[in-house]
Recover the amino acids of this structure.
């Protein structure tokens, strides 16, 4: 029988043995090793997709130094976050096009009114829900290729808006736009989870979302310029062409720059790729990527109460999301001109971005403050909603200010969406939880436009009341409940934590004899409930 040294950690395998990949041991050797009984074992088929890359290259790369770690962190953050944020910018601009074109003459040309406009937004989210089935492609195919295809398709659909001549055509286009965009944000979330530690992901989440919150600034100036252009075609059509063209340029960048995972990231050298994989696995306890759909992880995601609490939050929170599409019409009904509405939108976006930057600083300085931050940033729209229900209608400037003070509501959303990723492990479980969340996100957004009915204008008391109760009161309570459960799980696990890195074992299924490699337990793609060394960020 081979001695215990015949079982190696990944970093101890020499490049000369890379072709063999795994050291042969008898199968019952695992149970006989003193520490093996405390460790998990999976087959290579169920392991992290970076396993082969690590086996071939890990032994050649030394341990990262403190200075190298700081430089690596800056490099990864300053590449991945802006790239994902840029994609989120065009994604959000595409969603918001109907909001701007509603004041640029599209309603008249396509025979829309307030109720039909609300219906088009509802149909967008019907497509969004059905589009969650596209998560299958995210599980089975490289995320970079999936993102490139999605980006091209949503650019094409925005272009097609310019040939619409009826509200039925707008209905169809908004439906398919929702269907295509459905898994874009989950895909971005997966990518940031592949490259960033849990701490980096938490404090960069508000910065990532500034391109969504600040979308009003850039798109507002684009709209302002188009209004002065006096084009030969309809203003709303030129606006659609500009936004679609920006999306198409971003698609080209995605095609050449967007990584599938750290092992093929073009902006990293070999050492940096290994270091990124190591630091993510060591700090998150989670795998980088896994392409096998695991039924037991789907079942666990469905049984985990935390999954449903996240769903509850997103359902309640997103009942307020139509405010994004409605604000231009609110400005108009308050008495602001079309040109003035674009400038107020810039102010709205500027306040959003400022709040997001402050949120990022707070989270970076105060660990485990996500739930409390969600509550804090929900206080702004909570106060704004009360004011919109109670202020006299003739106080126009005060009403405009109260709409703008609702702007930070998106910060709570993105903090929670980041938390869904960092608070779970197991690739299939993450994908399943994302699908559940986005389903209820879509259901809420089907309902939300219907709260803004034409006969409720100009005050829309029903819409503001629902937002106040569900989005700005009940939703933060779900965040507190999640924190309570995860904190209790952490208390139960801390006494069981190993002093060093927790190890796992992967058995090759390609050879007649048993082949086993030992490495970080994150390589095993265990769920957070399977891995008692997983500590939840709060």
């Amino acid at each position: 029988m081979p001695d215990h040294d015949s079982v190696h950690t990944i970093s101890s395998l020499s490049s000369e043995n890379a072709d063999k990949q795994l050291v042969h041991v008898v199968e019952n050797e695992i149970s006989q090793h003193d520490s093996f009984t405390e460790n998990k074992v999976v087959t290579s088929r169920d392991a992290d997709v970076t396993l082969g890359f690590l086996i071939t290259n890990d032994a050649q790369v030394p341990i990262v130094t403190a200075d190298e770690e700081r430089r690596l962190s800056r490099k990864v953050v300053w590449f991945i976050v802006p790239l994902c944020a840029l994609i989120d910018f065009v994604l959000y601009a595409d969603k918001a096009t109907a909001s701007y074109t509603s004041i640029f003459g599209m309603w008249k040309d396509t025979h829309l009114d307030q109720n039909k406009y609300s219906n088009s937004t509802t149909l967008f989210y019907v497509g969004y829900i059905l589009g969650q089935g596209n998560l299958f492609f995210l599980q089975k195919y490289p995320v970079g290729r999936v993102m490139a295809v999605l980006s091209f398709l949503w650019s094409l659909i925005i272009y097609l808006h310019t040939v619409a001549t009826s509200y039925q055509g707008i209905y169809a286009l908004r439906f398919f736009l929702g269907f295509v965009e459905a898994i874009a944000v989950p895909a971005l979330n997966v990518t940031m989870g592949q490259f960033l530690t849990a701490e980096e992901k938490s404090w960069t989440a508000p910065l990532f979302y500034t391109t969504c919150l600040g979308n009003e600034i850039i798109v507002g100036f684009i709209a302002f310029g188009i209004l002065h252009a006096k084009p030969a075609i309809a203003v709303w059509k030129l606006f659609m062409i500009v936004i679609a063209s920006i999306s198409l340029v971003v698609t080209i960048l995605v095609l050449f720059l967007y990584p599938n995972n750290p092992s093929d990231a073009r902006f990293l050298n070999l050492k940096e790729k290994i270091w990124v994989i190591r630091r993510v696995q060591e700090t998150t306890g989670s795998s980088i990527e896994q392409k096998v759909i695991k039924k037991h992880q789907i079942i666990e995601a469905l049984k985990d109460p935390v999954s449903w609490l996240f769903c509850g939050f997103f359902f309640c929170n997103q009942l307020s999301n139509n405010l994004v599409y409605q604000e231009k019409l609110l400005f108009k009904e308050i008495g602001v001109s079309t040109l003035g509405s674009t400038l107020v939108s810039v102010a709205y976006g500027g306040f959003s971005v400022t709040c997001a930057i402050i949120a990022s600083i707070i989270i970076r300085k105060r660990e485990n403050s996500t739930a409390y931050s969600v509550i804090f940033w929900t206080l702004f729209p909570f106060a704004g909603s009360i004011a919109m229900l109670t202020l006299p209608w003739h106080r126009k400037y005060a009403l405009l200010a109260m709409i703008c003070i609702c702007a930070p509501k998106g910060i709570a959303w993105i903090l929670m969406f980041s938390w869904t990723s960092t608070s779970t492990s197991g690739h299939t479980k993450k994908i399943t939880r994302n699908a559940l969340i986005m389903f209820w996100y879509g259901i809420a957004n089907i309902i939300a436009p219907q709260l803004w009915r034409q006969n409720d204008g100009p005050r829309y008391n029903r819409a503001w009341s629902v937002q106040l109760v569900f989005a700005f009161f009940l939703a933060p309570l779900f965040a507190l409940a999640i924190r309570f459960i995860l904190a209790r799980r952490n208390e139960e696990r801390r006494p069981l934590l190993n002093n060093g890195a927790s190890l796992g074992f992967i058995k090759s299924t390609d050879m007649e004899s048993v082949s086993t490699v030992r490495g970080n337990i994150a390589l095993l793609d265990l769920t957070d409930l399977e891995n008692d060394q997983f500590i939840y960020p709060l």
User: Anything to note?
Assistant: Confidence is low (pLDDT under 50) at residues 1-38, 511-515. The chain has 22 helices and four strands.
